[in-house]
UDP-glucose 6-dehydrogenase (Jiella sonneratiae), 440 residues
Amino acid sequence: MKTDEICVVGVGYVGLIQAVGLASFGLKVTCVDLDPAKIDMLRRGVPPIFEAGLEEALRQAIDRGLIGFSTDIAEAAAAPLYFVAVGTPTSERTGNARLDYLEAAVSGIAAVAPPEAVITVKSTVPIGTCAALQARLDRDHPEKLLAIVSNPEFLREGTALHDFFNPERIVIGGASRPARERVRKSYAGFEERGVPVIESDTFTSETIKYAANAFLATKVTFINEISDLVETVGGDIDEVARGIGLDSRIGPQFLKAGPGYGGSCFPKDTLALATIGRRHGVQQQIVETVIRINDSRRFHILKRIEAAMGDKLSGKRVAVLGLAFKADTDDVRDSPAVEIVHALLEEGAAVRSYDPVAKLTVKHRGYRQCETIAAACEGASAVLVATEWGEFRTFDFTAVEEAVERRYIFDMRRIVDIKAPWARRWDIERIGSPLIRASG
Ligand SMILES: NC(=O)c1ccc[n+]([C@@H]2O[C@H](COP(=O)([O-])OP(=O)(O)OC[C@H]3O[C@@H](n4cnc5c(N)ncnc54)[C@H](O)[C@@H]3O)[C@@H](O)[C@H]2O)c1
Ligand SMILES: O=c1ccn([C@@H]2O[C@H](COP(=O)(O)OP(=O)(O)O[C@H]3O[C@H](CO)[C@@H](O)[C@H](O)[C@H]3O)[C@@H](O)[C@H]2O)c(=O)[nH]1
């Protein structure tokens, strides 16, 4: 490896995008991941995740000879710059983010890295983590003068490559100015385009990441509560959202009412922030309330479905359209759709699901994954739209009218076309709206 090369450790949703993105700038990137199956796929140019544009970008990087893959960190032994993007999942015991993957990765890097190498933490980590890692490196490898830099990631799944190439800001935290500078240089192209760069200490940069996610989760939770109100008092939640979102102080994004936030980040990061607050005696009351409201939302949805189905789900068949936590991704981590599938099965319902890309590994007599919307709807007493995939927006439910047991849709994403001719023949209930009965 040449000394101007970069090593990315942990090539999941974040690391792989980072690696492919940096390679597209002409930088030479070595990717290291513990998972041999993932590395094997990547070597063959096959992305282990579903993400728009990723396959093409990966193949280009391979063809240009700018990206390599390994399960062995020693193969990246001369890199002056490392990016670490390993998972930091919730600890069941503490509620905080687990750091064992990160600590193992940083120890592995420190053992092989050349002197003065920079280890950049892209993983989302509890405030104080980077300072603690720096202290550990200074103690265990004093002769190497290794530097930790915090560089949180803000990409969204489903638009990850687009977000990598169009960041709204770059945050670089670290005690060492030359180390921050080295990370900053790898993003030079963005800065030339006017993307703001925030340089700070690591406490600030780690807090920015948690505060951003907690704020967005709060915004979603706020509109969901207003949506509950609209369901009862009347009105249209999408118009309410538009009406407030046009106020530039509020902004239009993250005001789509739905089943509650999910995914691998918001639930984990809000919980971690609340835990960090408590640990430091500074309770984050807004975030704690947001978590509580969001957690109870799935129960609220289930109650509405139960009420519409005559209070008994046992023995009934439900079609669930969508499994991913949102559209355009295959990620099912903390997916509201998946939680609803589990809840329905627990209530004794039989569930058939369909998702264009996401797959579930649930083994249950009452559960079947289908290859088409029509197959999922076969014999259903309720059709639940759980993820906002484009094909559900345009689907003509005339095609399944004869196949279903009852023409009833519960739309958790407010995307089915209620103005379409077929919609008059169905009972349609949506988050944020009262039941619209079939008009014949
Ligand atoms: N997914 C997102 O949208 C997103 C966005 C911003 C930030 N983040 C944060 O980035 C981090 C990574 O998230 P992700 O979704 O990419 O996770 P992921 O689970 O998709 O990928 C993590 C990868 O790290 C590998 N790994 C674990 N320990 C390793 C080690 N010691 N050496 C080498 N590889 C190792 C795993 O095999 C896995 O492939 C998390 O902290 C997350 O909170 C995620
Ligand atoms: O108006 C909205 C917007 C989002 N959501 C839900 O909120 C969750 C998160 O959505 P989104 O933010 O689009 O997806 P993520 O890929 O989880 O991205 C978030 O989490 C990442 C990991 O930290 C950050 O990098 C991103 O900036 C941050 O948006 C999902 O369940 C969405 O369905 C809504 O219900 N209504």
Observations:
- The chain has a mean pLDDT of 96.
